[in-house]
Amino acid sequence: MTMERRTFVKLLGASGVVVLLPSPFVSCSSRELEALRPWDGPSDLPESADVRLKLLSYAVLAPNAHNKQPWVVDLRGEGIDLYVDPLRLLPQTDPPARQITISQGTFLEILAIAATHYGLKADVTLFPNGIDALEYIGKSPVAHISLTEHKDVREDELFGYILKRHTNRRVYAGPPLTDAELVTLRQSYADENYPLHIFTDSALISQIAGMMTEAMRIETYNRSMHGETVEMLRFNDDEVEQHRDGLSFPNLGITGVKLFFAKLFTSRSSAFDESFLQRTVGSIREGAFSSQAIGLISSRGATRTDEIMVGRHFARLFLTVTRMGLSLHPMSQIMEIDSVKSQFMKVIHIQDEEPQMLFRLGRSAPTPHSPRRALNDFLKS
């Protein structure tokens, strides 16, 4: 790698994502990309459009693993049938499809919240035809959603934050979370079957940050796992428009001269250089150790239903964090590396729970949204 690359290239993100010395400014020019238009909501749909399409336009903005957008919906019958897209799995970094299944839960919760905006109640029946074995995932629906009108339906207080939510992979800075903010987060969440833990002790945060770094080091130096992540990187606007998924430089706050050098000196092939791998791990460490708090959603069980319910709770919590003006970054690699997961469980002293979603909390300047595919791409035919 040239001196210019070593000077300007950095890596940051839950999935080993490329980042360059984050700028404090966020460019608005990327909003012109067609791949970012979904973040304007259903503005392109006519008023007379099927309300299910309007709900889908919000649901596809849900947080999801690697921004794979692993959803297919069937609108040919009554209501909505949701399926896992079997072509959008992560067999290397998520071999049990745990994160993919959690992503089904985030989709369902955002859709249910959006339904209230239209005076509708979304009744969700999980796995109406049974749960697919891993090798057959995507054959049967994950959920059937029935929509009914109710005069007493009130718009969910979190609806207005769906279009504002974004994952912030920057280094966090500024004052720590206040006691009042922590109380608000904890009071916004209540489900004994899917407990929320928020760790604020600095020594414990450092221990967990070290494990986050180690898990990412293992993933980064596994060529198959790292390769799967690199496949989801979008190195220029043409790739963003072509794929409309994954993560690009503007998502991560890269603008101006820094964006210029990012596009000039990074490529899919250079992502396997030793210096690139080292910077990936180093940047993950920097981000992890900047955490002002670390959150964990766990479950009492470890079934597919539990994973979906974790996703629903996580989506609501994420919107609450957005409403509070805080930043959130999922960093759940620990859950996929057994040796690190075992160490993590000993450190947090939690028994009879399955850790599911680990994330860091803090404050940072916002970053642009990640791209989304067109609605027609999600429709089953």
Biggest sheet architecture = 4 strands, antiparallel
* Chain-averaged pLDDT: 90
Query: Which blocks of ≥5 consecutive residues have pLDDT under 50?
Result: 1-31
Per CATH, the architecture of the domain at 45-162 is: 3-Layer(aba) Sandwich
**Widest sheet, order of strands:** 3-4-6-5
Q: How much helix, percentage-wise, in residues?
A: 25-40%
Number of H- or I-type helical stretches: 11
- What sort of overall outline do the alpha carbons produce when their principal axes are compared? globular
| CATH homologous superfamily placement of the domain at 45-162 | NADH Oxidase
Q: From the structure provided, what is the oligomeric state, counting identical versus distinct chains?
A: single chain
Structural class: alpha+beta
First-residue to last-residue Cα separation: 47 Å
> What would the CATH topology of the domain at 45-162 be?
NADH Oxidase
**In sequence order, what are the helices and strands, one letter per element?**
HEEHEEHEEHEHHEHEHHEHEHE
Q: How many distinct beta strands?
A: 12
Structural description of this entry:
The structure is a single chain. This protein has a domain at 45-162: NADH Oxidase (3-Layer(aba) Sandwich), CATH 3.40.109. Strands 3-4-6-5 form a 4-stranded antiparallel β-sheet, with helices on one face. 46% of the residues are buried. Strand 3 (71-74) and strand 4 form a beta hairpin. It is globular and about 55 Å long. With 381 residues, it is α+β, with helices and mostly antiparallel strands. It has helices at residues 3-8, 51-59, 98-117, 179-187, 202-220, 223-230, 237-243, 256-265, 274-289, 304-323, 338-348; strands at 10-11, 18-19, 71-74, 80-84, 120-126, 143-149, 196-199, 233-234, 247-248, 293-299, 327-330, 354-362. Residues 1-31 have low confidence and may be disordered. It is built from 11 helices and 12 strands. Helices cover 35% and strands 14% of the residues. Helix 2 crosses helix 3 (98-117), helix 5 (202-220) runs antiparallel to helix 9 (274-289) and helix 5 packs antiparallel against helix 11 (338-348).
